Amino acid sequence: MALPATRRYLTELLHMHKLTYEQIAQYSGLPVERVKEIKKGDLATDIETYKLKQVAFSLSELRQKDTGETMD
Asked: Measured between alpha carbons, how far is 24 from 10 in angstroms, rounded to an integer?
C-alpha cells in the first residue's frame, strides 16, 4: 500500500532534503506539532497538504537545478 501524498512529501523533506520538523514548519507556515502529527498519520487538511506540497516541490526544483536529479 502506498503512502498518502502528504506523508510522502514529509518523508521527502525529512530524508532527501535532511530538514528538521522545525525547518519544515518554518518553510510551510504550519505549527511544528501539526507537522509531527501529520507525519505520524493524522489526516492533513487541503491547505496543509497544499503548503507541504509547495515546499517539497520548490526544494525538489532547486535540487534538480543543482544536481540534475529528478523527483521520483
From this structure: 8
